[in-house]
Amino acid sequence: MISEQLAALGLPQDAEITSVAGRLLSITPPQPRHITRVVAAAIAGEYDDTHDVLRAIRATLMDATDWTQAVDSPLTAEQRAAWAAYRQALRDLPQAYSGEGPIPWPVAP
Predict the structure, then answer these.
(1) What is the per-residue pLDDT for 46?
(2) Cα separations (Å) of 13 from 9, 17, 104?
(3) Domain residue limits at 50
(4) Which of 19, 47, 75, 108 is disulfide-compatible with 52, CB 3.0–4.6 A?
């Protein structure tokens, strides 16, 4: 199951994951921090299925983009709307993902 979870993250085919005793040591080529955290948790057995992995990354991405919707954010109304659409696509992802192949992550504006 862990190989399915890691494949769903869309890691490069040639990615090398080094782990010892259920602990992630390294990923080559380096990945964004949110991916590295989820890979480490997957290796440690913290997820039951690929949708759990998806939800974990989605939560991190939502947290990282909360500022885009704040009233006092420096974004224009158009930029804020683009970020709102991205965040809605993240919310819709668990229902849209069939569980087959890489997770189709929306692209941030």
Answers:
(1) 83
(2) 11, 11, 16
(3) 2-96
(4) 47
